[in-house]
Each structure stands twice: as structure tokens, then as C-alpha cells.
Amino acid sequence: MPAPAIRFHSEYPRFKPPTPLRLKRWLKTVIHTEKKTPGTLNFIFCSDKYLLDINIQYLQHDYFTDVITFDYTEGKIISGDIFISIDRVKDNAQTEKQTFDIELSRVLVHGVLHLLGYSDKAVSAKALMRKKEDKYLSLIRKKKCNSFCKPKTPDMKKYLLLLFMLPLAWCMHAQTKTTPAAKTTKPAAPKPPPVKDTSLCSKKWVLIAVEEWAVESKPKKKQADDYLWMNGDGTFKMKINGDDKAGTWVKQAAYINFTTDATKEKFTFKVESAEPKKLKVDYHVSDMHTLFTYEVK
User: Fold this and answer.
1) Cα–Cα distance measured from residue 9 to residue 256, given in angstroms and rounded to the nearest whole number
2) What is the rounded radius of gyration, in angstroms, for the C-alpha atoms of the chain?
3) In this predicted model, what pLDDT tens digit does every residue of 101-147 receive, in sequence order?
4) Residue 62 maps to a domain
5) Which of 26, 119, 225, 262 has its CA 20 to 30 A from that of 147?
6) Contact 292, 210 (CB under 8 A)
7) What is the pLDDT of residues 3-43, one digit of tens each?
8) 222 lies in some domain
9) What CATH number is associated with residue 241?
10) 3-state secondary structure of 291
């Protein structure tokens, strides 16, 4: 499993968040202030269309939004995947007459506040969440940083020292050119990536039971040859309802996140119980839960 960290990923062409290290420190401060501990947080910056597809597929909402949060929090360890539409952030910044950097920071902390347990459904809850956003945005405005503050006055002592050191560095470089280079050894080959989770790997898990419950429960039949196979290198193959799927997987705490190679479909299993020869997982979409039971064959 990867070490807990805050990571930024971009599915939006030529986009990188401003001052990423500073933003990560700021988000950690927000979590610590709320008496929680940062876990693994993935921020994925994407387009309107990208986020709309996720909204339809996982939440059954056919409309644009600026942020969608998938919560993997366990106890006081705050973890999750937060998808942010850069197109929405740009439009909202113009509507609110705000800079892009400030509006992006608001959406970042909005997603983290959802993971911390805050909601924006009711009017009172939405007002509290807005108050929290303003509180933490005031922290990032106070700190000195490229995107939010004026640059510091240049330190003339450093410039003078640099001008003095340049001729010396040039002389040293010229001397090394005349000296024969030492024999270099070939670097060692990189080590293979660690096994994701040996307790689940290299076993053919055959589906033996399916239980489904929701507001309107419907029976679900399993195919005779449905199975799940997870390799230690992070790849998987499965057949469910007669459909073949293959791609990559990663386990975070009690969750297994899958991404298919062909369609880049993403789905998550929550591990309910794991025995040497029996595995139970919960696949939750909207108000529908499906409990799959697998056995090793």
C-alpha cells in the first residue's frame, strides 16, 4: 500500500495547480485543526465532461458540478478521492468576481470538509460549511506565497555573493574538464514494485452468492463462471454478469479500487470480511448495495 500522502493528478490538458507544496501543507493544517489525521488524499483535476461522466455513472446525476468526493475515511484517518472540474472553477471565479487561485482553494477545502463530515444539503449545514471555507481561506491568504501575495524584495546580499562565486565556479569547472573522468559503475537495475496485498493475490475467487438490497429490492442472478483474479503486480481480471473486465487495482484500507483498461471505468469494493478461502465485498452505487461472496477454487 502507498504511504499516506496528498497527491495532485491532472486529467485536464496542460494544467498544474499553483504552488502545490504550499497547498498540500495548507490542507494538512485544515485536517489537523479539525482534530483529524491526514491519510491518502488524491485530487484529480479534470474537465466538465470528465466529471459529468462520473456524476452520471456513480451518482446518477445528469448535470455539471465543480467537485465530487469519494470518502475512504476510517476513524480519524481522512482519506478519499476528490475530483475537481477546472472548467467549473474558472466559471465560478468569473461569476463570484474572484481570482482563479482563491476559487480553486475554496473547492479544494470544500472537498476536504466533506471528508471531515460536513454537509451542504440543508440550509444551516451549507451556511456552516461556507463559514469553515472562509475561515481556512483566511489562513492561506495570510501566509506569504507566490499566487496570493506580492513577491519578496530581492536580497541584494545573495545576488552579490552569487556574482562573486560565479568566476570561481567557472574555474573549477575548467579544471575538471582537463582531469580524466573516473570510471563509473553501471547503476543497479530498479527494484520491482512491491506486492499490493499478498492475502488477496494470485487466487481465483469464484463468485458463489449475490445479495442485493436497496429502496426497491430486486433479485440478482449470478453467472456460473463469474470470478475475480488479482495479481501482485496490481493487475486484475474478472467476469461478472457474463462481462469480462481487466485493468489495475489498488487496496486502500478496507477498500479495493479498480480501473478497467478498455473504458477507464472506476469502481470500488468495500471488504466486509476476508478469510483464506472466502471473500465478501460490498459494491455500493447510490442507494444500491450488492454483496458479493467469493470462494477460492
Assistant:
1) 19
2) 25
3) 999 999 999 999 999 999 998 999 999 999 999 999 998 876 543 33
4) yes
5) 119
6) yes
7) 779 999 999 999 999 999 999 999 999 999 999 999 999 99
8) yes
9) 2.40.128.280
10) strand
* Cell numbers describing residue 264: 477507464
Q: How many residues would you count in the chain?
A: 297
Q: What is d(CA 23, CA 289) in angstroms, rounded to the nearest whole number? A: 36
Range of the domain at 126: 6-142
Residue 109: which residues within 8 A CB-CB, separation 6 or more?
A: 27, 30, 132, 133, 136, 137
pTM of the complete model: 0.50
Q: How is residue 9 written as a grid cell?
A: 493528478
The total number of structural domains that make up the chain:
2
Phi then psi for 252, rounded to 5 degrees? -125, 110
Coil/strand/helix, residue 142: helix
CA distance 30 to 112: 8
- Pairing outcome for strands 6-10 and 37-46: parallel
The H-or-E segment that residue 22 falls in is helix 20-33
